[in-house]
């Protein structure tokens, strides 16, 4: 199996973990946990594939992806059974990994289907943020994108880094790993030190 | 008209009733009621048809489906006008019927388009739960899937029963009626006696 | 460029402004503002194009649409920087313009792809309300459709006016401008004078 396959598996697994941990906090039952893990994992890529109008969405084309999600959700459930408190930071880190991975994988698939660079960046952001956004909306949590720490920014930086390196002639493999790394580290730093871009300063200059 | 047609009409009608009753509680105006009823009714099947990439989504292919929704919403509005209090249990029962019907109908359509059994189960769950989930999110209610009573489980049981019976050589008609019946009865029992699967027991063994 | 192009640009710009103003109230950072503006702007039309199964969704076919959204979001950010308080009424007016424009543009595109009149009205309503609905759900605001003032009604009136005039033989240009005007004025009047249709009167006659 290719690097692309394993990056997809990794992205699905970490998003499934973030969904299952959220479900744990809300005390959902096992099938509810699996449904929420799947929604988080396949949500973004499904919207990407539908907009790109690919012949088959990725989890129909490659059935092992669904197994990945179920295994990740089950392992998370067993793990959670042995701890006292849901580790919120683990959920944020899993979400950050999924965000960076799927942003780059989304941009990559868009380019593969002939989209220009600007569209690839938009498709990457959709792929990276939509699954987590649906998880948060269904679970009635504050969506990550509304929190003050860098989030949409990390996704956009990942996509632009990846697309930019490709255009500079860097290999797809190197570009994708650097793109993923940059977005992931940026988001981790934001989680750790509450990095923020300056927000709207209403009335600042009035 | 075939059994399939009438099962679809029934599913659309009961989901439309559940949406219209929710709208009644929120005192929406008549056109808002119809829009919410339609969102609940066609939401799940539309996502299914888009992912399966069928030539036309079901409510464009068969225009009488939209009439079903409008009639069900209007009848609900008239009915509500004559009662003192919105019957919450009626909303739950209508939602349960839609959940069981659309879970099986979703799995069936996926199989018709050549999906393997595992994908059919996933498509069934999406078809069964998505419309109600959108209704609850837009109306700012706790999504059914987050409540403690069996919900996602009933959908999955319906889909697996239907797909399993088919694989054992049972006719499509019998398999679908049994699949729908099992899921509906399970969900009704959950509503009546607050049946729950064991949830995450955090710290249970620590 | 055609009238159709400019009406689309206008609809995207006003919805982007409504999204950016909402983001300003929630103190999102610049990239969050752009993502929310884009979600609001392209949300409805993307769902329309996916359901109609057009060869390419509108913002991939015409890349200048994305530039429109980014410029509108940036201008809004600069503007907001110079004022003391986010003008809520401006947000409502921008949303009203987007609602009327995209309702008619959605119905028009459905007719162009061969849909009958009733389907065109449904597609128009989806195009008009979905983007704003996603904006409100992600931002955890009360969706416009749940507020008491005429909202879904304005969209439906726009779509029916446009489709009806076309069927009476009126030119597409006149029909669309009248359809947009009627819906926009109706919604503005509802904002100004809190016009409401009679809602469910529970127990009124009991």
TrEMBL record, chains A, B, C:
<keyword id="KW-1003">Cell membrane</keyword>
<feature type="transmembrane region" description="Helical">
    <location>
        <begin position="119"/>
        <end position="138"/>
    </location>
</feature>
<feature type="transmembrane region" description="Helical">
    <location>
        <begin position="150"/>
        <end position="170"/>
    </location>
</feature>
<feature type="domain" description="Glycine transporter">
    <location>
        <begin position="5"/>
        <end position="79"/>
    </location>
</feature>
<keyword id="KW-0812">Transmembrane</keyword>
<feature type="transmembrane region" description="Helical">
    <location>
        <begin position="63"/>
        <end position="83"/>
    </location>
</feature>
<dbReference type="Pfam" id="PF03458">
    <property type="entry name" value="Gly_transporter"/>
</dbReference>
<protein>
    <submittedName>
        <fullName>Trimeric intracellular cation channel family protein</fullName>
    </submittedName>
</protein>
<feature type="transmembrane region" description="Helical">
    <location>
        <begin position="6"/>
        <end position="24"/>
    </location>
</feature>
<keyword id="KW-1133">Transmembrane helix</keyword>
<dbReference type="InterPro" id="IPR005115">
    <property type="entry name" value="Gly_transporter"/>
</dbReference>
<feature type="domain" description="Glycine transporter">
    <location>
        <begin position="93"/>
        <end position="164"/>
    </location>
</feature>
<feature type="transmembrane region" description="Helical">
    <location>
        <begin position="176"/>
        <end position="195"/>
    </location>
</feature>
<keyword id="KW-0472">Membrane</keyword>
<feature type="transmembrane region" description="Helical">
    <location>
        <begin position="90"/>
        <end position="107"/>
    </location>
</feature>
<comment type="similarity">
    <text>Belongs to the UPF0126 family.</text>
</comment>
<feature type="transmembrane region" description="Helical">
    <location>
        <begin position="31"/>
        <end position="51"/>
    </location>
</feature>
């Amino acid at each position: 199996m290719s690097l692309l396959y394993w990056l997809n598996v990794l992205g699905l697994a970490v998003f499934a973990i973030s969904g299952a941990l959220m479900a744990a906090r809300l005390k959902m039952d096992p099938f509810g946990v699996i449904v929420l893990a799947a929604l988080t994992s396949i949500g973004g890529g499904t919207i990407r594939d539908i907009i790109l109008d690919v012949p088959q969405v990725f989890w129909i084309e490659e059935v092992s992806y669904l197994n990945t999600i179920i295994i990740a959700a089950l392992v998370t459930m067993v793990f959670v059974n042995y701890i006292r408190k849901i580790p919120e930071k683990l959920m944020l880190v899993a979400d950050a990994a999924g965000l960076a991975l799927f942003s780059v994988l989304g941009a990559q698939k868009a380019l593969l289907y002939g989209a220009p660079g600007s569209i690839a960046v938009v498709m990457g952001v959709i792929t990276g943020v939509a699954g987590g956004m649906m998880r948060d909306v269904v679970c009635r949590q504050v969506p990550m994108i509304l929190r003050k720490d860098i989030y949409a920014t990390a996704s956009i930086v990942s996509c632009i880094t990846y697309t930019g390196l490709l255009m500079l002639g860097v290999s797809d493999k190197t570009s994708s790993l650097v793109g993923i790394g940059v977005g992931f580290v940026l988001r981790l730093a934001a989680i750790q030190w509450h990095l923020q871009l300056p927000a709207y300063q209403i009335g600042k200059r009035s």
